[in-house]
C-alpha cells in the first residue's frame, strides 16, 4: 500500500497544466458504446477510475487503448450487456454505463456496489427515468436486469434534484431512442455540456445541455469522432487551495475560467488575487499574511460552489485567520477528512451537513489516512503547509482522480514523495 510523505512549509510557485476532467472522461467513455467506428479522446486523464472504465469497455467487446493522454476506442465489437461485479466495485461512476449499454444492446445487467465513502449514492432517479423511456427493470438484492423489449421511446422527464449522473444516464439512453426526450431540472455541470458536445459531434441531436432543460431528438445511429476532454475544474480548485495555503503564486494552464466562478469568489474572499487570460489563471496568495476566513461556503449544484471542492477548500479554511462555516448540501457523509485534519492541529467541529472551522495559526505534520478521493486531496494540501512531515496513507483514493499528483506538486516546488 503506497503512502505519500509530504514535508511542509514549501511555497508553491510556477506553471502547471491542469489534467483532463475525470467526470467528463467517464461519461464520454460510456458514450462510445453508443457509437460505431472509432473515437479518439484527447486530454483523457490517466486515473484508476478511467482505467476501470476502459476495462469495462474491453469486457463489453470494444477495443480501448491508451497512448499517453490519448485514448482510442473502437466501438464495433459490442458483444456483451453485463458488467461484472469486480469492475462495478472499482468505481461507482460505472452506473453511467446503464443507459448507454441498454440503448445500444437492448439489455444491461449489473450489480450496484451500494454506498461509498461519501454517501449512500442511490440511483432511484436513474431507474425512474429509464422506466419512463420504456425500460423494464428487475431489481434483486442490488442487482439490476434492464431490458428494452420494444426499444426506448422519448419521454418528458423531470428530475427531483439536478443529479449529474441521472442527467448523463438519460442523455445516453435518449440519444438513439425513437422520438424526443425532454429533461426538466437537468444538472448544468460543464461535464454534461462536454458529454453533449461529444455526442452531437457523433451525430446526436442534444439541445440545451448546460441549462436546466435539455431536449434530445433521438437519431438512428452515432459515429465515433475525435474529441478533447475539458480540463478538470476540481483539480484546478485543489491546486488553487495548495497555492493559497503555502503563500504561493502559481499559473494554471489549460483551464476554462468560466467553470471556476464559484471557486474563484471564495478564494477572493480569502484574500487571494487572480489574473485570468483566455485559458490560464494565475493565483497569488495574500503576501505575508494569513488567509482571511471564507465566512460561509454552501455546496450547491453547478454553477454554485462544487461539493467536490469542499474538502480541499476546508483545508485552506483550517489555517485562515477566523471562522468559516461549511454547509455540505449534496452528500450526507463528506466530512471524513476533518477528523484527520484535527490530528494535524485543526480546530473543526462537524454536525450533520455543517462544519465549523476555526482557523489556527499552524498545522503540524502527522500520520493521517485518506478515506475518499477529495479528502485525500485535502490532507495533501494540509501537509504542504504543515510544520514537519505528514505521512498520508490511502493514496489509492487520490489516484482515482489526481493524475501523478506528487509529480505535479513537486514541479511547483513542494517536497512530496510517494513511497
Ligand atoms: C457526480 O456524482 C460526480 N461523479 C461526483 O464527483 C460529484 O460530487 C457529484 O456528481 C455532484 O456534483 C461523477 O461525475 C463520476 P449526483 P453523481 O447524482 O452523479 C442524490 C468526485 O469526487 N441522488 O449529482 O453520483 C445523491 O445521493 C465525485 O469526483 C439521488 O438521491 O452525483 C446526492 O445526494 C464524488 N438519487 C445528490 O443526488 C439518484 O438517483 C447528487 O448526486 C441520484 C442521485
What's a concise summary of this model?
With 419 residues, this protein is α/β, with parallel strands linked by helices. The protein has helices at 22-31, 48-60, 85-90, 97-105, 124-132, 164-174, 190-201, 233-245, 261-269, 310-317, 336-343, 373-385, 395-398, 405-411; strands at 3-7, 13-17, 35-36, 38-42, 63-67, 70-74, 82-83, 107-111, 136-140, 143-147, 156-158, 180-184, 205-207, 213-217, 222-223, 226-228, 249-253, 273-276, 280-284, 295-298, 323-327, 347-351, 354-358, 367-369, 389-393, 415-418.
Spatially, the strands of the biggest sheet line up as 24-25-1-26
Give me the CATH architecture of the largest domain, please.
Answer: Alpha-beta prism
Level-1 CATH class name of the largest domain: Alpha Beta
Characterize the quaternary organization of these chains.
single chain
What is the share of helical residues? Answer: 25-40%
Work out the count of structural domains.
2
Secondary structure tally, helices: 14
CATH level-3 fold name of the largest domain: UDP-n-acetylglucosamine1-carboxyvinyl-transferase, Chain
Q: How many beta strands in the DSSP annotation?
A: 26
The hetero compounds bound to this protein are: ligand EPZ
Mean pLDDT: 96
The biggest beta sheet is recorded as:
4 strands, mixed
| SS strand fraction | 25-35%
Regions with little confidence, pLDDT below 50 for 5+ residues: none
What structural class do the secondary elements suggest?
alpha/beta
CA-CA gap between termini: 9 Å
- Fourth-tier CATH superfamily name of the largest domain: Enolpyruvate transferase domain
